[in-house]
Amino acid sequence: MVVIRLARSGAKKRPFYNMVVTDSRNRRDGRFVERIGFYNPVAAANENGLVVNAERLAYWQGQGAQLSPTAARLVKGLAKKAA
Q1: The three-state (H, E, C) secondary structure of the chain, written as one string
Q2: Is the whole-model pTM more than 0.70?
């Protein structure tokens, strides 16, 4: 199954997450098909904390990809901000 989830990177105590499309059997930080955005939980006020390519997200969901619970929460919050 194809899943859209967060892959952690960044330094210790300074997390940074890439939103990736991957096979559910791959490791969290392992191989992925495509990077469709990022989430920076410690972003400063003048920086983008969450960026998602909406076109690619819609494409992958149309192909049957499932959002992880955390990715779904972030995308839902992003949709509320845009509206």
Answers
A1: CEEEEEEEEEECCEEEEEEEEEECCCCCCCCCCEEEEEECCCCCCCCCCEEECHHHHHHHHHCCCEECHHHHHHHHHHHHHHC
A2: yes
CATH architecture of 2-82: 2-Layer Sandwich (3.30)
Instruction: Locate the domains of the chain by residue range.
Output: 2-82
On the question of pLDDT at 71 being above 90, the answer is yes
Q: What is the pLDDT of residues 60-70, one digit of tens each?
A: 999 999 999 99
Q: What is the pLDDT of residue 70?
A: 95
Tokens of 78: 């992003």
